[in-house]
Amino acid sequence: MASKGYKCASCSKQIRENSSSLSCVNCKNWFHKKCSDLSDEKFKKIAAAPKKKGQTNWRCSGCLSEVSIVESDDEDGMDVDVSSSPTNEIFLLQMKQLFEKYLAPFREKVDKIESNIASIKSELSKNTEQNKINTENYRKLEKRVKIAEEGSSDRTTKSAS
């Protein structure tokens, strides 16, 4: 709740003492609940959250958009130029948590796929070795059949004479 004398940074109207309003933790500007674009549920969560020195842990859209991303010539392309302000540190922490939350299922799937690939490679290697053995046995057998056929045809020619 705002004290007397604050104006909404969005609509510039006076914020009454008993009206639903909140202050940005970064820029310290006050906003009416309706001007903050927060749902009733989110507003209630923020209002119920533990506060430091009467402040909320909410940031206005202007402060949230202060993070600047710089393209990099590095191989990984992951350099992000952010100041070390608490707002940016909180933002980066929140982004990391979101990445971990939403990437975890994909990491599990990738791990499973990698395991399957290793298993398939192992089976393929075994099959390749067995194929080499079978090919060599086939050649030896072909040679024996050829020798047997030649021996048989020699006997047939000798008995005919």
Q: Descriptors for this entry?
A:
161 residues, mainly alpha, Herpes Virus-1, two-stranded antiparallel ribbon, 3 helices
Indicate the overall shape.
rod-shaped
Biggest sheet features: 2 strands, antiparallel
What is the residue-averaged pLDDT? Answer: 81
Q: Please report the number of helical segments.
A: 3
- Helix % is 40-55%
Order of helices and strands: EEHHH
Terminal-residue CA separation: 123 Å
Could you walk me through the main structural features you see in this protein, from its secondary elements to its overall organization?
With 161 residues, this protein is mostly helical. The protein has a domain at 1-63: 2-Layer Sandwich (Herpes Virus-1), CATH 3.30.40. 55% of the residues lie in helices and 4% in strands. It is built from three helices and two strands; from the N terminus they run ββααα. It has a two-stranded antiparallel ribbon with strand order 1-2. The radius of gyration is 38 Å and the shape is rod-shaped. InterPro entries: Zinc_finger_PHD-type_CS, Znf_FYVE_PHD, Znf_PHD, Znf_PHD-finger, Znf_RING/FYVE/PHD. Keywords: Metal-binding, Zinc, Zinc-finger.
In short, what is this structure?
This protein is mostly helical.
What is the element layout, followed by pairings?
Blueprint: E1 21-23, E2 30-32, H1 40-48, H2 61-64, H3 86-160
Antiparallel strand pairs: 1-2
Keywords: Metal-binding, Zinc, Zinc-finger
InterPro entries: Zinc_finger_PHD-type_CS (IPR019786), Znf_FYVE_PHD (IPR011011), Znf_PHD (IPR001965), Znf_PHD-finger (IPR019787), Znf_RING/FYVE/PHD (IPR013083)
Protein name: PHD-type domain-containing protein
